[in-house]
Structures are given as C-alpha cells and as structure tokens.
Design the sequence.
C-alpha cells in the first residue's frame, strides 16, 4: 500500500499510474477530493493531523507527502515564518516518539505551520520501504532535518532542488525534494531534458526543454509570438484568447513571420483600445513595451490563478502566489494550466473555477512525480511517455 498525505487533486497519483502503481490519498479539501474521485483515485476526506497511523501498520510500502508550506513560503503574509522553530522542534520530538503537537500548535502563529511536521509521525510509526516528499524550495532545510533521522533508521537518502522542466514538464517549477529508501540506494532522478542540451562524451544528448507553445499546441516554438490579448473574468473562461487572437497567431505563422505589437493599447488587428488597460484584456508574451517573450521557453511556475507571468517576473508577497508582479501576463484556461503541470487536458478538476485553478497550482506535476518515485522504487518509466494533447 502507498499512502499519499495531503494528496490534493492527485498529481502524485497520476505519476504513480505511469509506473503501474496506485495509492490511497488523505485530503481535507472537498473540491480536491471530488477531483480525485472523479479521476478514479481512492480518497479519504480527513484531517491528516488527526488520522491514526494504526490502520496502516505493517501494510505500507511507500509514503508520499506534500504538506502545506505556510511556515516557509515566500508568498502570502509569511506570518508562519515565526513558527519554524516550533516545526523543527516538533519534527525532532516526533522522531523520538514524543507527540507534543497540541502544545506546539497552541503556540503557532499559523495553525497550518505544524502540518509540515506531520509526515514524521507517519514515518516514525510505519517505517515504509520508501518515501517521497515535495515542497517549495525554502523547505529544503526541513527536509534535511528529516533526512538525518531517516539515515539513523537505515534509509538511503537524497535531498535537493529539482526543476520540473528538466523532466519534460513545460514549466520551470522548482521544488525541494526528499527521496528515501531502506531497501535500495537512492539518488536524484536523472534529468531527461535540459535548457541547452549538449552531447556528452558518449554521444548521448538530453532533449530540450518543452516549451509552453509546444505543450499547448500554439506552434512556432522557435519564433517570437505576437501580442495576444486575453479575455474572460478573473477566474478565466472557456475561450481565453478572444477577438480572433488565436487565428491571428496562426495567420502570422502561415506568413512565416511574427508581428510584435509594442503598444499596450493596440490590438492584434491594428485597432486601438481606449479603455483602461487594467480593466481591458491584458497584453501577453511581453514584459514591457518593446520587449519580446520567446515561446520556446517553458512556462513560469503555475500558481493558483488563470495567469502565467513572463520569464523573469516574480510574484508579489501580498496576497500569495496568485498575485503576479506584472500585468503583462497571459490568461489561460484550467485545461491549459493542467497541461503546463503535465496533467492531461481533460483531467476532471471539480469545484468552482477558482478552486480548480487552486488545485492545479498546488499540485505536483505528475511527470515530475513519476521520475521522483522511479528514483525511490527503481521502477523505470516507460520509454515513451503519453503525449499531452493540445488544450
């Protein structure tokens, strides 16, 4: 049995399917549980912090966890940063069989902070054959603390930062990863893609990063795209590129040249827009007037929103990861966001549009998950991965 803590819409589970494995997920959020069940994944809706480990004793093979990261995240109000010492102390106590979670939780600034210590309770009680955990890069010091105790218990360990783009995901999403096994030696999964592939001494060459345009079927992966205006409400819509924007892109491709509009008030057809640019469709694929966003790059990190920021832009701390620092973003549908996370475009995300984007943004990219679990279990991925259809 494989148990997935904080399982969400089941990015890990979709990765397991590529390896011929299945798991049982524990998740609190109703919309995420509905998504998981619609996708055929066994799910228990529960609070991981209160769920007992005893039902899984002597039955568990693997443990997966992507706990909430409020105490480490650079986004949001970051009030949980003050809770880091409490989290690390709780991990230490749980590793030694002392459950002081109630006392520590009462002292936390953010009650969610202590969830990052929950996997240690399960590890101490169950000692699975292998472990995979994932979180934002700033959680790496906590993973290294976990690694110290796991090594003492006889596990082979690897911790570090992986970029999803290096494993075929059309997105430059970096995450802190922990991989452990007590039955085999583990190390980082070998990358399959690279930003600038080069042949090695043996003539082998990694594949180039998968571009956003290639993944979404927008074409012209080696050319500069025209400005594409985005429409729809704050939570997206069925057609994110109205006003013949997609057709304008295709027409430009057929002409063998791309037109880059540098005036924010200018539309793809040459007409001018007189309304407030912040209330009107946002320009896309540009960082600022006169600049160019080349489509051969992967997308930036997909967050809980319908917008993707140009490369080089960071998210504002205020309001969390969904608040992008630049209005020069491209609006995408849930299906397109799913593809950029390496889900299939028809993955059955449930709930409101906002909840669907939240699930996509918080999920582990299934293709990255498959490579991580492969490193932990020794089960190889199929040589040819199922290709993502255009959204």
Sequence:
């Amino acid at each position: 049995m494989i148990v997935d803590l904080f399982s969400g819409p089941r990015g890990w589970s979709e990765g397991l399917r590529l390896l011929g494995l299945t798991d049982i997920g524990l998740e609190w959020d109703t919309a995420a549980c509905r998504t998981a069940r619609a996708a055929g994944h066994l799910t228990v809706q529960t609070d991981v912090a209160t769920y007992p480990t005893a039902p899984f004793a002597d039955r568990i093979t693997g443990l997966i966890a992507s706990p909430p990261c409020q105490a480490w995240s650079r986004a949001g109000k970051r009030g949980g940063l003050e809770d880091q010492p409490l989290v690390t102390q709780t991990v230490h106590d749980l590793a030694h069989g002392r459950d002081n979670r109630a006392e520590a939780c009462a002292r936390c600034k953010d009650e969610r902070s202590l969830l990052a210590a929950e996997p240690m309770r399960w590890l101490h009680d169950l000692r699975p054959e292998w472990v995979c955990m994932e979180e934002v890069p700033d959680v790496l010091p906590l993973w290294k603390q976990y690694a110290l105790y796991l090594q003492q218990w006889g596990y082979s360990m690897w911790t570090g930062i992986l970029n999803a783009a290096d494993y075929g995901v059309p997105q430059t999403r970096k995450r802190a990863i922990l991989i452990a096994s007590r039955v085999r030696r583990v190390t980082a999964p070998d990358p399959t893609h690279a930003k600038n592939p080069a042949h090695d001494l043996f003539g082998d060459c990694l594949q180039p990063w998968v571009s956003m345009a290639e993944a979404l079927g927008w074409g012209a992966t080696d050319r500069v795209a025209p400005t594409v205006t985005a429409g729809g409400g704050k939570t997206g819509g069925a057609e994110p590129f109205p006003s013949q924007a997609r057709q304008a892109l295709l027409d430009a491709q057929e002409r063998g040249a791309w037109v880059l509009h540098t005036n924010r008030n200018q539309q793809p057809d040459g007409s001018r827009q007189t309304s407030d640019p912040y209330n009107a469709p946002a320009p896309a694929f540009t960082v600022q007037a006169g600049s160019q966003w080349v489509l051969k790059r992967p997308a930036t990190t997909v967050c809980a929103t319908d917008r993707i920021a140009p490369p080089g832009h960071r998210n504002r701390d205020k309001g969390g990861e969904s608040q992008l620092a630049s209005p020069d973003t491209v609006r995408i549908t849930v299906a397109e966001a799913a593809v950029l996370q390496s889900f299939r475009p028809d993955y059955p995300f449930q709930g409101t549009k906002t909840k669907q984007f939240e699930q996509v943004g918080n999920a582990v990219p299934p293709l990255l998950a498959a490579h991580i679990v492969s490193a932990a279990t020794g089960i190889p991925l199929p040589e040819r991965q199922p290709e993502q259809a255009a959204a």
Remarks:
- DSSP finds eleven helices and eleven strands in the chain.
- The longest helix spans residues 140-152.
